[in-house]
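Working notes for the structural subgroup meeting. M.R. asked for a predicted model of this chain before we commit to crystallization trials. I am recording the input and output together here so anyone reviewing the notebook later can reproduce the run.

Input as submitted:
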Amino acid sequence: MRILSYLLFFVAQNAMALSIDWAGGYRIEYFEIDRPTLSSNKERKAYGLNYLHLDPKIVASDGINIIGRFDLFTNEISSYQNSQLGSIIGGGLRRAGTNNGPNVTSENQNSSLMRVSQLYLNVNQEYGSLIAGRAPIQFGLGMTHNAGLNAFDHWYDTKDMIAYRFVIDNLSLMPLWARVSQKDFGQGVTISDQAFVMEYDNKDNRSNAGVFYQLRNSSVESNDALTAPGITTFPAGSTANGSWSTKLVNLFFGRAWDAFQFKLEASFLTGETGIVTTLGENIKFNSYAIAAEMLFPAQDTGKWTYGVKLGLASGDNPTTPGVNEGYQMDRNYDVAMLLFNHRMGQRDFLTTGITHTDPTLNVGNSADDEAIGNTIYVSPTITYLWNEKMDFKTTLTYAQLMVNPTNSVDFSKDLGTELDIELIYKPRERVIWSNQLGVLFPGAAWQDGASNLDNKINFGIATKAAITF
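Returned structure, recorded in token form:
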């Protein structure tokens, strides 16, 4: 008995020396998209998602923290496993390659895997901090580097990296080295990032700015760029026989006043893909994107808030097979409920096929994995602050294509107009329930000129709740 008492005392003493702080979030969502094809053959989508993440922070010593993230109820579709999309509600027992019996006679649901998406060391010092491990990446508006910090974000950006962030008053400087991929334990079979991040944040006058400069390089052997027709926007017959070498530069600026707030981010992607066309041309990247957000907050006892998102992303021109001009913003950066969020139509008008690597997924069976590309858009929003717990939000989005991606005759660049209505209910702190209705009135671009495809009206509804802790 005395030995047991000593053991309990020893465990208690060591537990007191180690602090573990927990944070996280839970959400449940349901979506229905009526006509993602915009044609008579609707391929209607209706699905629910269930997701939980736990974020432990181990305080090992003063200034030394070990931070992780556990994703529970992750999605089992291979293209979505490395995401925070969540598990499909109604996950049955039968999966490909398993012998769990038929779903029609099952008495319970298929169990879900837990994945570790972040694990890194954070050492804080007087003039900076060291980050080593798999850590999240966030910059500016999140149009390119987006860690998925919002309650309903389905995607995230992480890197296996080592970085040191120097802090000088309002200025921070961070050199960063990351290993994107390593085939095995050998040398010369890697994909690596070298980056430098400079950020300025002045809370006194509410202004901030930043530069994110990133180089990505691969060896010839590790260049695994997909060239299969129908999966990417690279010309049919292209082969990867060179190294990948690209440069990505993002510039950000923001300023806020009591009556007006403004943010702007621009991104430029250039470099070599290592892919060669059948004509012997080395395919290069030369693309860009700009996103801006303006907000007029409610004043004093006012109940109306006005905002607008506007921007553009270059599209891949099919008449220049040696250059890929297509830019895809991060999938977390949403403008409308349907447009640029869910795949739609019967052609890759947004030239985002380079991000859709699973040929088994299409407009009728994919999640919200579309991105902003080959477009120019404007999206004003009006929010009515009904009371402390309820907001009513209306968004009107209009968009056009930047280039004709199919070379069709009599092609129109008009993507159309979307009206979104959202009712946001916040019954208590850290709890939010959102109900959305979106209606897209497609423009003539979806008809593909002389192809005369359908461009029928599409609508969708969504209800989703999130709890953060």
